[in-house]
Design goal:
This protein has one helix at residues 70-87, and strands at residues 7-8, 15-25, 28-35, 43-49. A hairpin with a 7-residue loop joins strand 3 and strand 4 (43-49). The chain folds into two domains: 1-50, Single Sheet (N-terminal domain of TfIIb), CATH 2.20.25; 52-90. The protein starts with 6 loop residues before the first strand and ends with a helix. Helices cover 20% and strands 31% of the residues. It binds zinc ion (ZN). Zinc ion binds at residues 9, 11-12, 14, 35, 37, 40, 42.
């Protein structure tokens, strides 16, 4: 579970280690964390969700609906404007 993101214990703010991880869908995963503070011992579950696309996949799965980031939309609109201006007759 070393690939899971770092997480702090919500109670004592100490580092917590991911113990198990379960994929509930291609976009959502539950990760069980254990607080590393022996005096606390809190075990808790976090949700890890894919929420937006920054750069589109070259091999997209049609089943996956992941919205584009606002930044991507602005960049694409800007590129379209530049292309549109370039295509105008002189
Ligand atoms: Zn703790």
């Amino acid at each position: 579970m070393s690939k899971a993101p770092g997480m702090s214990c919500p109670h004592c703010k100490s580092a917590a280690r991911a113990r198990t991880s379960t994929a509930l869908s291609p976009l959502f995963r539950e990760v069980t964390y254990q607080c590393l503070n022996d005096h606390c011992g809190h075990v808790f579950v976090c949700g890890l969700e894919a929420i937006r696309t920054l750069s589109p996949s070259a091999i997209p799965d049609p089943e996956i609906r992941l919205p584009f980031s606002q930044h991507v939309k602005k960049r694409e609109i800007a590129q379209q404007l530049v292309l549109g201006l370039g295509a105008e007759p002189a």
